[in-house]
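Milestone 3.1: sequence recovery, worked example.
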């Protein structure tokens, strides 16, 4: 696994905080236990639980914990439809009705933002953006999704995986870095920021939500995820301050390589590296046709 520049936090550590991961990249929720900011209290937050397992990105964890993760390439899916699908699968995962799941897709043009920074970083009035603006329940700031951008939504149980939030985000970055390395693109994470960078430009964004759907007794289930710029039209990003970072640009695999592989191919490679990094056995979802709606 390629190294990253940010420090590693022990899973469910009693002392770790958001650390090198930018706090806005993660949104947590609990129906009854929260502090004044709407975050889970220190005693219930998965980053503040006693350490129970080695990090999933380590070889030791891979040997001890190798669950099945079903995955599916769904093609082009409208954003709100994909959001509803995530909530449905997260509820099933929390009830133990399905294994960890990785949804792979692209969206029609849409701008999305975390609920803490809704519309704060628009360069144009909303009605001139040329695509819908959707306020979501994920962490992170405003970004763009569109054709040619690979979207990955992991819906996994962090408690079962023995992962804290910081380690989870770091692992997602490692998945992206490994995927890009396979195409000859050198990339890295940056301390204090979330996502993956090629030089000074962002090539992949991460914004996640961790919650306990349905029951406080269940696990901490992830939704939302990552967006990797493969061949997406980068002109869309000029209409916003992408991820709220004004002094850095955005790039794509196509811009760096002069060409880009088809999204289904990149999605297969990313799924492979997801299995390696998280110690999962990947299996094509048997209900992938139903997932497409």
């Amino acid at each position: 696994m390629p190294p990253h520049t940010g420090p590693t936090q022990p899973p469910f550590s009693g002392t770790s905080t958001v650390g090198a991961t930018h706090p806005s990249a993660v949104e947590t929720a609990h129906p009854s236990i929260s502090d004044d900011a709407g975050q889970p209290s220190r005693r219930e937050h998965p980053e503040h639980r006693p350490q129970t397992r080695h990090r999933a990105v380590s070889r030791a964890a891979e040997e001890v914990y190798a669950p099945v993760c079903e995955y599916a390439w769904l093609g082009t899916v409208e954003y709100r439809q994909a959001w509803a699908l995530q909530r449905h699968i997260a509820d099933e995962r929390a009830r133990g009705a399905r294994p960890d799941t990785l949804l792979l897709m692209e969206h029609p043009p849409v701008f999305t933002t975390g609920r803490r920074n809704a519309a704060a970083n628009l360069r144009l009035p909303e009605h001139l953006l040329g695509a819908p603006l959707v306020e979501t329940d994920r962490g992170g700031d405003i970004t763009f999704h569109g054709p040619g951008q690979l979207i990955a939504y992991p819906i996994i149980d962090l408690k079962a995986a023995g992962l804290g939030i910081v380690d989870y985000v770091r692992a997602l970055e490692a998945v992206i870095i490994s995927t890009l390395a396979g195409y000859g693109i050198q990339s890295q994470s940056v301390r204090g920021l979330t996502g993956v960078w090629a030089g000074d430009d962002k090539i992949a964004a991460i914004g996640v939500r961790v919650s306990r759907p349905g029951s406080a007794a269940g696990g901490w289930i992830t939704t939302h995820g990552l967006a990797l710029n493969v061949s997406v039209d980068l002109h869309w990003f000029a209409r916003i301050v992408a991820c709220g970072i004004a002094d850095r640009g955005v790039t794509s695999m196509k811009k760096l390589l002069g060409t880009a592989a088809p999204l289904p191919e990149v999605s297969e490679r990313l799924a492979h590296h997801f299995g390696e990094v998280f110690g999962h056995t990947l299996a094509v979802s048997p209900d992938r046709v139903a997932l497409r709606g």
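Residues 1-21, 30-63 have pLDDT under 50 and may be disordered. The chain has one domain: 38-291.
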